[in-house]
Amino acid sequence: MNPTFAPATSSATQYTLQTENLSVYYGGILAVKNVFLDIPKNKITALIGPSGCGKSTVLRCFNRMNDLVASARIEGNVLFHGTNLYDKRVDPVVVRRQIGMVFQKPNPFPKSIYENIAFGARINGYKGNMDELVEKSLKRAALWDEVKDKLKASGLSLSGGQQQRLCIARAIAVNPEVILMDEPCSALDPISTLRVEELMNDLKEQYTIIIVTHNMQQASRVSDKTAFFNAEATPKGGKVGYLVEYDDTVNIFTDPKEDITRDYVSGRFG
């Protein structure tokens, strides 16, 4: 049995995802500690901070991608509409259908453009008109006009920016509610980056989006909320990530509460 992901409380209605005192360990090593986040519906939330501060680790908790790392374990709760995603009754496959992910490097399947979209929908039991789904998904990803006459061509034949939008279309095709993006533009040129950023702004009307980025300008341009993470040294020479500050993006970049946040967004460290 899987618990239903339906809003149960006023806070669950207001926030799509929430973390409650989330800590993540790899083996016996604490990677990120005590994170409290409320992710609002139909907004873009950016996770920023220096390398090794836990941004991607937290992002992967939202669709249980850390389950694929044998040594990983979490403490605390990750809630999706008030339901704990780490409840033993919750199937992670169902979670990943509801909460899709786009990775740093475009990773189309070695299949046709059409099959890149159709494959995931098909294995998830889609029974509708596949041609319509492929067209709709590519249109939502602002890619249809560029590929509509070559749907049988390999997805790998596209440019890097087109491949990333194809991966976004592939995520959309299984009808998720949330799209996670881990440095989605880091491998792209400035023009392709702008296209993906414009696409994110269009998509937030229908999806909740969480993006990890090292690009401060990108975070300030596209996000509604920003969470700034940092890392502190441990006695054994490692480091553990923690959430410094979480607020509306305009506040993080123009009037942060913490001096360390101001130093980071102004480029004094990181």
Describe the protein's architecture and organization.
- The chain is α/β, with parallel strands linked by helices.
- It has a single domain (39-70, 89-265), classed as Rossmann fold.
- It contains eleven helices and ten strands.
- It has helices at residues 10-14, 55-61, 92-98, 113-123, 130-140, 144-147, 160-173, 190-203, 216-222, 249-254, 259-265; strands at 15-26, 29-40, 44-48, 72-80, 83-84, 99-102, 178-182, 208-212, 225-233, 239-248.
- Strands 5-4-1-2-10-9-3-8-7-6 form a ten-stranded mixed β-sheet, with helices on both faces.
- Strand 9 (225-233) and strand 10 (239-248) form a beta hairpin.
- Helix 4 runs parallel beside helix 7 (160-173), helix 5 packs across helix 7 (160-173) and helix 7 (160-173) runs parallel beside helix 8 (190-203).
- The longest helix has 14 residues, at 160-173.
Q: What are its keywords?
A:
10 strands, 11 helices, 270 residues, Rossmann fold, globular, ten-stranded mixed sheet, alpha/beta
